[in-house]
Design brief:
The chain is built from 6 helices and no strands. With about 110 residues, it is mostly helical.
Length: about 110
């Protein structure tokens, strides 16, 4: 199979997985969907990143991705094992802004730099 066809099939596979995932989520109740908001956001982001990365992957990797079941959820579960600095950066920003508020009576409007 040529590379272009492999890339197209991988994109279609990922698109189908995302469609099934969204359909599954839409069957849940409002509270369950709300509780799954981070997961939903991550799965959509993983889909978007994978579609961009497909052109950089080797053909043998693309062939393996085609037969890998539930790739998006697999990658989401792998992502959850990585340390995320988001909360640490947010906490740093909050501490800085609370110190500024206490010292100067105003909060900076520009973004916090970690």
């Amino acid at each position: 199979m040529n590379r272009g066809k492999l890339e197209k099939l991988c994109c279609e596979k990922l698109g189908n997985e995302l469609k099934v995932y969204k359909s599954y989520m839409l069957k849940k109740g409002v509270e369950e969907v709300y509780a799954s908001a981070y997961e939903i956001d991550c799965v959509v982001s993983i889909y978007e990143l994978m579609v961009e990365l497909i052109c950089d992957l080797a053909e043998d990797c693309l062939e393996k991705l085609l037969v890998f079941p539930d790739l998006l959820l697999f990658l989401y579960n792998k992502w959850m094992r990585y340390e995320d600095s988001h909360i640490r950066e947010m906490a740093y920003c909050m501490r800085e802004e609370m110190a500024n508020l206490a010292n100067a009576g105003e909060v900076r409007t520009e973004e916090c730099a970690a």
